Structures are given as structure tokens and as C-alpha cells.
């Protein structure tokens, strides 16, 4: 299994450098994630400028990567300045405010269009739409859209009216919510019908999960294969209900940090189990005895092979 070029280059890095590296892995989409990305791209290219365009709603349980998906997608579209020096951005990403307040939502969208604007400024719905048009935004992405349910009923209605107003101007919208808040658009039947829904699901034992783990392993700066997609490791995650993307990646990263500290060549089932079960973080201030498996693993490496 061939590591990615950045992972190969990091093999000679220090413990802290490699630990930092595994915290910033490249985005690895799931099958449903690829579908959501393709829909967002399709709507940006073909629905922009259409009267009442179709839009995208990404629904996902916590920890399955909906926010990472939106930020990865938005990162592909760097803002550029036109011949007059005006900053243009094809895609704008904002996170709905936790309090679900209309004024704060308008401010988040305004500053996503024009960074540098006063985040506490007072912007009308008309102001926000004009800013979107001035910045040549083709697609507006709103993460944690379920937060609007924390606001008053009147605020919810006005935020939905704001989104409808944006789409009425031909700008396509992508929103993301948890599965529990998937009915966030239900109060406006007409608006809800404009959204295509893609659902990200918890992992199950499947070829998709094995492919995902293979892709993760390619980004780990370890010299020997860890065989993360082996049945034993896959079932270890699922048996412990580590069936979200973050629930899988977090112990892998913790196990990597143990391996870096102990100069181990790869991850093992025991090391991953230790990362899941230990009450302490990797290193955790415990120089001796941090991992109950490390001494056994290192002893096995020193033992002569049977004749």
C-alpha cells in the first residue's frame, strides 16, 4: 500500500510534527458524501440563474462529516478580484447562529460574502441579497441550519423567507442539518419542495467502510502497513459503536500518537483498542505505562522468529 506523498514526506518528521499531521488529514468522502458533492456541483453549474432553482439539503447524524463536507466543497472556490478590484466568490459558506436569531443569521451571511464587514452590523434581508449579488455568489451554503429552531417562531419564518428570497434571485442554496432536525424547512412547504435531500449514514460493515479505512491508512505517516480494513479492526469499531466518521478517526489518530511516541512501525488491533478504552489521552502526562499494550508489542518485535 503506497502512502500519499505528504505522508511519505512526514515519515522522518518529529513526534510532534507527525501528530499534528494526522490531525489535519485530507477530506475523504463517503459514497453518500460523493453524491452530496456532486449534487452541490451540479446545482451550482446548472441551477444558478434559474427561476426558483433546486437546492441541496445534506442530512446526517452527528459526527458523520456534514460540516467537513461543506467546508471541503467551499474551499475549492477561492475568491478572486475582478478588473475593478471587487472581491467575487462563487460559493459562500456560513454557519447558522446557535441562537437562531434572524439578525445574527443575516450578519453571518453578509460577512461570508464580504469578509471584513462588521459582524455585529445590522443588515436587512434586502441588504443580504444585494451583497450576495454584488459578490457574484452562485451558491450559498448554510451549515448547522437546524440552529434556526432555537429562535422564535417569527425568527424561523423570517429566516426561511430570507432563504426563499435568495433562491428567488436565482442563487442556489445548500444547507446541512442533523437527522433530528431534518424538518427544519417544514414550516414552508413551498421552500421545502425546492430542496433535494442527501442523507449521510452511520457506518456499517461494508466494502465502503473498508475502502474508507484504506484511504485513511494512506495518509498515516507509519512505515509498515496497519491493515485498518481488516475484519478484526472493522468489527472492533462497530462492536464499540464507533460507527461515525469522527468515532473512527479519533481513536486512529490517538493510536497514531501512541505509535509515534513509542516508535512503533504500524497500528495494531491492540493499540486501537487501547486508544478507545484508555481514560487518558495519548501521552497524558504518564511517561511510563501509558499504553497497556505497548510493552507487549515492543517485546514481540524483539523476540526472535521461531525456526
Automatic annotation (TrEMBL):
Which Pfam family, giving just one, matches this sequence? TniB
Q: Which InterPro entries match?
A: P-loop_NTPase, TniB
User: Which branch of life, at top level?
Assistant: Bacteria
Give the SUPFAM superfamilies listed for this entry.
P-loop containing nucleoside triphosphate hydrolases
Q: Write the protein's name.
A: TniB family NTP-binding protein
Q: Which organism encodes this protein?
A: Lysobacter auxotrophicus
Output the lineage of the source organism: Bacteria, Pseudomonadati, Pseudomonadota, Gammaproteobacteria, Lysobacterales
Amino acid at each position: 500500500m503506497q502512502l500519499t506523498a505528504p505522508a511519505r514526506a512526514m515519515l522522518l518528521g518529529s513526534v510532534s510534527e507527525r501528530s499534528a499531521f494526522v490531525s489535519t488529514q485530507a477530506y475523504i468522502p463517503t459514497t453518500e458524501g460523493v453524491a452530496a458533492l456532486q449534487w452541490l456541483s451540479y446545482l451550482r453549474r446548472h441551477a444558478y440563474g434559474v427561476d426558483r432553482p433546486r437546492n441541496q439539503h445534506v442530512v446526517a447524524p452527528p459526527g458523520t462529516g456534514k460540516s467537513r463536507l461543506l467546508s471541503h466543497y467551499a474551499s475549492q472556490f477561492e475568491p478572486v478580484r475582478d478588473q475593478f478590484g471587487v472581491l467575487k466568490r462563487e460559493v459562500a459558506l456560513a454557519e447558522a447562529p446557535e441562537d437562531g436569531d434572524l439578525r445574527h443569521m443575516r450578519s453571518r451571511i453578509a460577512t461570508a460574502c464580504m469578509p471584513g464587514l462588521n459582524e455585529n452590523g445590522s443588515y436587512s434581508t434586502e441588504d443580504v441579497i444585494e451583497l450576495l449579488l454584488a459578490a457574484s455568489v452562485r451558491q450559498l451554503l448554510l451549515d448547522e441550519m437546524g440552529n434556526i429552531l432555537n429562535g422564535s417562531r417569527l425568527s424561523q419564518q423570517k429566516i426561511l423567507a430570507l432563504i426563499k428570497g435568495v433562491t428567488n434571485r436565482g442563487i442556489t442554496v445548500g444547507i446541512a442539518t442533523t437527522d433530528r432536525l431534518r424538518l427544519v424547512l417544514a414550516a414552508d412547504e413551498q421552500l421545502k419542495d425546492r430542496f433535494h435531500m442527501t442523507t449521510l449514514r452511520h457506518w456499517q460493515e461494508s466494502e465502503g467502510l473498508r475502502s474508507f479505512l484504506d484511504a485513511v491508512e494512506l495518509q498515516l505517516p507509519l512505515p509498515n502497513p496497519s491493515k485498518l480494513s481488516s475484519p478484526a479492526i472493522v468489527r472492533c469499531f462497530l462492536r464499540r459503536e464507533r460507527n461515525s466518521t469522527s468515532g473512527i478517526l479519533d481513536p486512529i489518530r490517538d493510536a497514531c500518537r501512541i505509535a509515534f511516541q513509542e516508535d512503533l512501525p504500524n497500528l495494531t488491533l491492540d493499540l486501537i483498542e487501547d486508544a478507545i478504552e484508555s481514560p487518558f489521552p495519548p501521552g497524558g502526562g504518564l511517561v511510563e505505562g501509558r499504553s497497556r499494550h505497548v510493552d507487549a508489542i515492543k517485546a514481540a518485535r524483539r523476540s526472535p522468529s521461531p525456526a
